[in-house]
Design a protein that fits this description.
Helix 5 links the parallel strand 5 and strand 6. A 7-stranded parallel β-sheet has the order 4-3-2-1-5-6-7, with helices on both faces. Strands 9-8-10-11 form a 4-stranded mixed β-sheet, with helices on one face. Helix content is 46%, strand content 15%. It is α/β, with parallel strands linked by helices. It binds NADPH dihydro-nicotinamide-adenine-dinucleotide phosphate and magnesium ion. NADPH dihydro-nicotinamide-adenine-dinucleotide phosphate (NDP) binds next to helix 1 and helix 6.
Length: 379
Amino acid sequence: MKKIAILGSTGSIGTQTVDILPAVDAQVVALTTNTRIQILEEQARALHPKMVCAYDEAAARDLKCRLADTEIRVLTGMDGLIACAAESGADIVVTAVVGMVGLLPTLAAIDAGKDIALANKETLVCAGELVMRKAREKGVKILPVDSEHSAIFQCVQAAQGNPIDKILLTASGGPFFGKTAEQMRTVTREQALAHPNWSMGAKITIDSATMMNKGLELIEAMWLYDLPPEDIEIVVHRESIVHSAVEFVDGSVIAQLGVPDMRLPIQYALTWPARVPCKVPRLRLAEVAKLTFFEPDRQAFPALTLAQRAAAQKGDRGAVLNGANEAAVGLFLAGEIGFAEIAERVAHALDTIAYHKDVTLDDILAADAAARALVRAQP
Ligand code: NDP
Ligand code: MG
């Protein structure tokens, strides 16, 4: 039986992971939240982990009282997250926290030799080179949860060791597909939060609306599959049925298809290399009827070009791009800046913060902090 730690178990990916657990031969050893302790308490009582963490200190105090009648250890803060990742006795850690906060626990888990079911793409965007190198050194598997990267992972397995020539990374296009750059200036928070195909946490939903999500995924794919960014082509595919595809030297393209439901890629990351029945509805192609594909509109979605630029430069650019984006999305969700300003502030951070090519973990943390501070300080 596999021992699993779920970081961010109360979020969109986290709760869907808990939902498919009965299909996986697994025992949960750790669960974490930031503040949603009601959900965490219910999960803990059902799954009996060894330890839990509420990142927020006040929430952790409350959670400790709620779980006082159990043997479960209640932790808090970054130390608590790291302990859940590396010291809970897990074989595999599902990284489903949102944002750069996932980096240190992921590195700690890899150091401790745990396999990673990676949902937290920000970790690879900020520190892909470091994370992948450490994983290779430790012989740790990074199993992608993100639907596109899971699709690529599945296509690659059909390649019999032949190298990938090109990745076709599909994008739904989000709620603002077809709008012009001018029209994007007046979109609201509510419109940006209404994704047509996927139900996800707020931050990634906004990233999908700006298409920064696809930019982050391009960087994620670059590190996972060791390809230069120019070999990763973004294709807008409105139906979210083709989850991505891989092209080989002979021009043959292998794609992975399925209904848009994250439980499938989550389950596959946890059962790989085996496949087991999944509760997700089956794909009925005749009901889908039509699959459409478009070039992305780079004028209306400048985040794509910003991410491509950061991907090409490597070094600390991923950390600057991501830190600036997290801060700008936070300001947008708080109603403090407009939608178009998200990409503008990220561009300003990339233009302003000095570039460092060879980076240590400390450099990455510093680049992240500088980008956030700059974005928040802008009038
Ligand atoms: P959610 O916002 O729904 O959940 C995030 C989880 O992380 C929650 O458990 C949340 O706790 C916790 N969390 C938030 N902030 C902190 C913090 N500062 N410290 C510790 N824990 C924290 O996000 P999603 O599930 O949508 O996304 C999670 C990750 O997966 C992201 O990196 C996203 O890009 C990626 N992903 C998500 C997909 C999806 O369909 N949702 C698809 C592909 C990738 P609390 O509940 O208290 O807020
Ligand atoms: Mg995705």
